[in-house]
Design brief:
alpha+beta, Nucleotidyltransferase, domain 5, 5 helices, 35% helix
Length: 142
Amino acid sequence: MGWHAWILTTDSNKTFLDPTLVISGTGNIFGHPCDMSSARAELQGHTAMAIVAQHLQTLHNIPRVPFSFYYDNQGIVQGCTTVCSRWLHHHRKANMDLYLEYWKASKHLNIQNLWVKGHQDENIEWQTSEDLHHSELPLEAN
């Protein structure tokens, strides 16, 4: 079993450290043990974030505001960007169950799926998210 985590915030460096301007979540990765992977964890987190964003947009009757979803797995970016119109043709594709949930949750959202190089913090000493905030890393890499 594994875990996923996600953060929904604005694009400002200042709001990232303000807990009143951040919505975050964590949870289990669901699925058969042989399907567990870091890609599945990333997709599970982004699916959860899309569900929350869709709920907030519907609850508050907000028009299609732009969202930027950042991934460090280019395959997941491609999978989230390309909706399979012929499900039976792609039924054996890895993580298809989560892709279906993601596409369902995100179909009324204005999402830009973006890749960001992962593990950019490897050569930086940090203990807290504030330490990362004050590093030279771009916000998307934090």
